[in-house]
Amino acid sequence: MALNPVIGKLVSKRVVLASASPRRQEILANAGLRFEVVPSWFKETLEKSSFAAPYEYAVETAKQKALEVANRMHLKHLRTPDVVIGADTIVTIEEQILEKPVDKQDAYKMLSRLSGKEHSVFTGVAIVHCSSKDNRLETEVTDFYEETKVKFAELSEELLWDYIHSGEPMDKAGGYGIQALGGMLVEYVHGDFLNVVGFPLNRFCKKLAELYYPPPKHTIHHIKHDSIPSVETFEISSDGECNSSDNTSCKSAKKQNSSEIICTSGKCRNGNGNYNVSMDSQNGVKENTTQFPTKLLQLLDGFKASKALFVSSKLKIFDLLKEKGAMSSVDVANQVKASVCGTERLLDACTALGLLEKNHQGYSNAELANLYLVSDSESSLYNFVLYCNDRLWPLYTHLELAVKEGTSQNHCTLGKKEEDLFQDFCYQSTEMKQRFMSAMHSIAKVTARDVASAFDLSQFRVVCDLGGCTGALAYELVEIYPEMKVTVFDLPDVVTNVSSFQPSGQNTTQVFFSSGDFFKDNLPEADLYILSRVLHDWSEEKIHTLLSKLSVCKPGSALLVAETVLDEKRTCPARAVLQSLTMTEGKQRSGLEYQQLLEKYGFTNVQIKITGNLLDVILCIKKMSTH
Ligand SMILES: Cc1cn([C@@H]2O[C@H](COP(=O)(O)OP(=O)(O)OP(=O)(O)O)[C@@H](O)[C@H]2O)c(=O)[nH]c1=O
């Protein structure tokens, strides 16, 4: 892609974003960066008065956040990342640094201070390149900051409190979110908008370009210093990583004094990912611009892409290419016993989707496929992909009926209508059982690190993972916290089949399995209970049964819940909202809803970490008795 070879430079690297901020995750993901999220545990408590300027404080905090994650990942024997990115956003007004408000009163103080005035938003960013020498971590830090000026309108008391009660200010520097309701408070913005939201993407790309493409001297005059290096510059310096068809069909040139990119083909993407179709008349004046609904087309094609992924996984094409290296379509077709023309079309589709690469030697796996689609890779999602095809695809084909009736269509897809149909389906035969457990294991494995490291759990020694299935999360926990002992509590049918999922790590003897039904049987004693991907599946009544049991655990013990947490509008993230369409008896909840639910059963100090990956994490503590 012409626009992001700098980002493309990071494709083969293990990039970690050391931030829990969902906004940073979204900005970087939208820019096409592939990364893991490991939120930093660095406490933002540097002495502000020891810094000559506010931005120095933000830069140092960003650096410490990134270094803490780099060190932790290295020390905990997790694979050392190649690059860790940390960021810190602060608001400054009249020499004072404002961070996230601690409570509503604090938010009120901040916002009334900003009312009617101009303030600065600084985001400090640290890019830490890591390497491991003789088992020691070596780091190289590049840091920078960006300043944006924002002016607030005069805010009435009523508006101020309405805004505070919306809940939006609490996790945001200065107590506002310019990208959402807070946008209504703003009169003007001078500078990079995304810098206010939490990440200065433009300057970040420039920094990457500086790091990865030090420009040859004779081309220096082509680079405009107040903008991302022009598209032309990217293409020249992209080591041939650009998609060749992009290069030929869209010779981009940047108009001077304007950020608009004109393409000679007449087609060019604008900031929304839509195409502006512009028609140049003979005298060069643009006559007509219409928007092409790319997003809509992507939605229309979504099902085709999913099915191409499912079928190529089912045919084990990614395993084959991993084993044999680049292959022609004819050889692949012979090996998978499929037609040549059909196979070629499927391989081209997978290439278009970024799962395969194609060159004169034939087709080979893209990094994404090697990492996640090869069936025996460390982080394989192969079994989960098959589960999506075999189990979820048929369910979603009955969506219209599901919406009309307001019920799950399990009976249509599985052919029976019983209360415990889901469990029946999953455990009806040894093969089904193994397949279901493999699917759950593969998805649990790729989310386990996020869940296990969202909070510092080192104080907990005796842990019980309720419904922990194959123990994927339990094994990750004992890897990170060597003092921990984890009991996985699950149905007898599950527990008798877990041996094949045991990894060969050193702490595996600290994981135990205990069989039982968490709705009916006594739960093992523990000082930390875990419910990962459990609550969203069950009815209010069943959740009541389960949480009532947990509510009598000893005061001071904790409960960790891993779920996708919805925003307060209940429309984001889309994957959770889409999952709700299966109409199980359960439901997805927002942060506030989880908080209220957990508080109802005597858990307090509810903390929520939005990881931006599949699962967010909630930690709460059982209230000490007052008598
Ligand atoms: C002004 C403004 C800020 N923010 C958010 O404020 C947090 C700053 O806090 P931080 O300490 O820099 O980051 P964090 O959220 O604690 O995450 P982490 O990087 O883990 O420290 C970040 O979230 C930003 O998006 C918005 O979403 N919109 C805005 O208009």
Automatic annotation (TrEMBL):
Protein origin, superkingdom: Eukaryota
Pfam families assigned: Dimerisation, Maf, Methyltransf_2
Listed InterPro entries: COMT-like, COMT_C, COMT_dimerisation, ITPase-like_fam, Maf-like, SAM-dependent_MTases_sf, WH-like_DNA-bd_sf, WH_DNA-bd_sf
Keyword set includes Disulfide bond: no
Cofactors that this protein relies on: a divalent metal cation
Domain called O-methyltransferase C-terminal: residue spans: 396-603
Any single GO BP term: methylation
PROSITE patterns the record matches: SAM_OMT_II
Domain O-methyltransferase dimerisation residues, every copy: 297-375
GO function terms (MF aspect): nucleoside triphosphate diphosphatase activity; O-methyltransferase activity; protein dimerization activity
Transmembrane segments: none
Keywords assigned: Hydrolase, Methyltransferase, S-adenosyl-L-methionine, Transferase
Subunit structure: Homodimer.
Name of the protein described by the UniProt record: Probable bifunctional dTTP/UTP pyrophosphatase/methyltransferase protein isoform X2
